[in-house]
Amino acid sequence: MSAPDKKPGKRWAIWLPLVLFGGFFVLVMNGLVRPADRDIESAMVGKTLPEFTLAAGSQERPGLATDDFRKGDVRLLNIFASWCVPCAAEAPQLDQIARAGVPIDGVAIRDREQDIARFLARYGNPFATIGKDDISEVQLGIGSSGVPETFVIDGTGTIRYQHIGPIMERDVQTILAEVKKAEAPL
Amino acid sequence: MSRILACLALFAAMLSVPAAAQDQLPPAPYAYRQLEDPAQEQKAQDLMETLRCLKCQSQSIADSDASMAGDMRNQVRLRIKAGEDPEAIRAWLVERYGDYVSYKPELTALTWPLFAAPLVLLLLALLLLRKRFTRRLPVGEE
Predict the structure, then answer these.
(1) Same structural domain for residues B36 and B82?
(2) Which of A80, B65, B70, B86 could bridge across to B31 with cysteines, CB 3.0–4.6 Å?
(3) Of B28, B57, B97, the CB nearest to A135
(4) Distances (CA, A) of B82 to A139, B69, B76
(5) C-beta atoms of A134 and B28 within 8 A
(6) What is the pLDDT of residues B94-113, one digit of tens each?
(7) In total, how many domains does chain B have?
(8) Does the predicted TM-score (pTM) go above 0.95?
């Protein structure tokens, strides 16, 4: 252990704090610049729908229950609410999907019948059934954390795909493709 | 003048939209009501403090006034009331939302380095310090 042995090591080590700081700086800047992903994906995709029965949320449509999703056809389960602004934004796209022949079942979260009626009159009614979920029971049951969210349910009642947020123009083809995929059994 | 008024009215209408983005329903039965049995309520409270509110993600559902957090509290209290084990309720939520929904630290294949790192660092520090303290001992060799 003589002095000359140590010197080259020390010369190299003198840059170590700067390198560490640089790495830390890049990490922090990366976290600041890149928008964080706050979406919480449902862990229920690939699992079966939980059991539920919801009363009708509109006089124009029946309510819905888990049994309605076991009749062999692929359906969309749309979590919405009349008080949710982005839900109005996805109305034209839902309408487009319904016209393409995909039945859509609505679950109205914490909503009043008169508000739902007003919402449907204003933005259109693409729904085959509308259930009222006053205590977010179905929402919690399928692992949804906000409105709107849309789930593709296959003919056996298995959740096959989750779309978080409003369905925009660019999402329609994705949803239709997922519906097609769900027509084949897992 | 009327155009300015129309603009103002439009602006006011736009402002009022976010304010309307809140539901009108009363909270779920057990969102703000404690369970009748204090022991059960304590259990529910302990659990609720370690469950994440999914709307306001840095609060627990015990802390949050989001209506969804209220519905989650209702769910937790009802299940506790029915005699369900708190950890079973946590597992039920984790099954739906992943580990993210729980604040309780778990030792898993993914998280073990978090627990091991302080021990490793402490050992490393001890090792380095020992070298430091022993360096001056062999004075006679220099």
Answers:
(1) yes
(2) B70
(3) B28
(4) 21, 20, 10
(5) yes
(6) 999 999 999 999 888 989 99
(7) 2
(8) no
